Amino acid sequence: MNPKDLVNINRLVIAAPQGRCGKTTITLGLLRAFKRRGLRVQPFKKGPDYIDPSWLSAAAGIACRNLDSYLMEPEQICKSVSMAAPYDLSIIEGAMGLFDGLDLAGSSSTAEIAKITKTAVILVIDATRMTRSAAAIVLGCQHFDPQIQICGVILNKVARPRHEKMLREAIEHFCKIPVLGAIPKDSELSIPDRHLGLITNIETDNSDRLLDYLAEIINKHVDLDQVYALATQTSQLPQSWYTKPLNQTRHKDSQPARIGVMRDKVFSFYYPENISALVNLGGQIVEINSLTDPCLPPDLDALYIGGGFPEVFAADLESNIELRLSIKKAVESSLPIYAECGGLMYLGRTLKVEGRFFAMTGALPFDVVMEPKPQGHGYTLLESLPGNLWYTTGIKVKGHEFHNSRIINLDPRVKFAYKVERGHGIDGVHDGIIYNGVLASYNHLHALGTPQWAVKLVELAKSHKSCKLSMSIGV
């Protein structure tokens, strides 16, 4: 390929042989440390997760983007990575173990993302209670899939200098790659757990202090110059991958449809691409706080309620009576509303948490109960049913779900949006409730993998706006 047809994107994947090795805290420290050096660092997260990306975004000061080979096609993944071309460095944090995927072939694994994006891997090794065996683990990863380039190792939870020396010597002698750093055992190098893995960045008052602390640890114990040098040695990418940032391709509209997005510490699960897609198609985003705003803005043309943790803030949601009534009225007036998981829960009558019932909007005919274990967890595949305003019948929609709640007392007359082919959804067979202009489901989707979603939401919003204008002038 002609060098003129290639583009440089400095990038690395941070992965581990298994989960709980510390790759998230190390990735956060790397992002913040490079940011403090004045570099513009674009974070990516492998998989459909929302919580890790909230922390990665905070660490880098740039919105994290997800890369998922189940939800997205390889070309879409490459285009997403190519958008980081104006930045100094891109860091992709893996998920679970490097080769852990959906099947024997390792589909949807971190390794698959590394191969699709032609990106070298830094392996994080939890060195607890081992020395020479660390080299065997690294060597196994190197030979398991020769297409994966493991360019270096960061050791985590190292006990003492002698421990570090033995680990370094073994890995560099047998594996022929550098040990880039050794992080000592430290009880402060952690973020509190919750049932999705971590608490969201927006809920942590001292997040900046923690991120700065992680950066100091990384700066002290990791050779950042060598890490950056390895990122610059990653393969150049085809120029055809390069795409302009989304905000440079926005649709111009003199009277854009105003789309409310409920975004706060309760509802925070939104992919940046979903919001950008709405804007690019002519939507104007209006942010709404479910805890403090007394009502919906009167001139909204549609509403988008993402996922989050309504069960954690159930009492606060209940206390905002005026907003709950405002949303119920909007549903009855057929305002187009798209709600995912936490948004679905909020649109029901009540939410039961630890034996206590909290009033929600009452816009949809069901109640919700929180359970101690997940009721739905993993990737989904849904088929659109007749009567679904959002998708033509038979359309397949990919997504993911992770919810500890279940719906009870559902009105038997309710219309479902989807038949579940993979996943659990609402009852193991169906997902998505259709009512007036509402589509509310447990399914989370990504706009790059399901582009018709944004098209339809903006179309419905513009239609609603047009109807309002016609009524106002008496047509």
Quick summary:
With 475 residues, this protein is an alpha/beta fold. The protein is 31% helix and 25% strand. The strands form five sheets. The chain has a nine-stranded mixed β-sheet with strand order 12-10-13-15-24-23-22-19-20. It has a seven-stranded parallel β-sheet with strand order 4-3-5-2-6-7-8, sandwiched between helices.
Any overview of this molecule?
With 475 residues, the chain is of the alpha/beta class. It has helices at 23-36, 51-60, 74-82, 110-116, 133-144, 161-175, 207-221, 224-232, 272-280, 314-319, 321-332, 342-346, 451-472; strands at 6-7, 11-15, 41-46, 65-67, 89-93, 121-126, 150-158, 179-184, 237-238, 257-262, 267-269, 283-288, 302-305, 307-308, 337-340, 350-353, 356-359, 367-370, 376-384, 396-403, 405-408, 415-422, 430-435, 438-441. It folds into 2 domains: 3-241, P-loop containing nucleotide triphosphate hydrolases (Rossmann fold, 3-Layer(aba) Sandwich); 251-472, Class I glutamine amidotransferase (GATase) domain (Rossmann fold, 3-Layer(aba) Sandwich). It has 13 helices and 24 strands. The strands form 5 sheets. Strands 12-10-13-15-24-23-22-19-20 form a 9-stranded mixed sheet. Strands 4-3-5-2-6-7-8 form a 7-stranded parallel sheet, with helices on both faces. The protein has a 4-stranded mixed sheet with strand order 17-16-18-21. α1 (23-36) packs parallel to α2. The longest helix is centred in the C-terminal third of the chain and has 22 residues, at 451-472.
